[in-house]
Prior knowledge:
Layout: E1 4-10, H1 15-29, E2 37-39, E3 42-49, E4 52-59, E5 64-69, H2 73-81, E6 85-88, H3 100-115, E7 118-119, E8 128-131, E9 140-147, E10 152-159, E11 162-169, E12 173-175
Parallel strand pairs: 3-7
Antiparallel strand pairs: 1-5, 1-6, 2-5, 3-4, 8-9, 8-12, 9-10, 10-11
Amino acid sequence: MAKEWYVLRVASGREESVKESLLKKVQLAGLSELVPTVLVPTERVSEIKGGKKRFKERKLYPGYIIVEMDLTDDVWYLIKDTSGIGDFVGSFQKPTPLSPQEVEKILNTLKTKDETPEVKIDLESGDRVKIKEGPFENFDGSVDEVFRAKGQVRVIVTIFGRATPVDLEYWQVEKI
């Protein structure tokens, strides 16, 4: 039988500990060749706290882990016996494997997220904002452009009766 990818429901917030527990049980049972990969899909997101840029891992699918395996009876019972694992995603009688397109999409997402962390900016062009830090503190303006790669926004602020573009870090503004 060929190895296929399956999704397992696990207790939300315990994905990593369930993954480690499953890998340990697979190794002890000598089934490592039947269950080569167990993944908790995450992405790196940068955020600014206290003026410092930090990277945080965020789960793409909270409450689920993805496992590549050859689903034999031994593997089935081993997974069912692992604490923290609820069930397979799919029909009740027979677990449904992920399609090759779904697997490729998930694996590509993991690869690209490792290369370039995504900055989460909840602003769009035209949004009204208030500047909360810097030389233009307490000025109101509207977002002209969002530079997601740099983590910056260009805000149009009226200074002395003239519309002036100001480039700011995204965390220096808040939506009104």
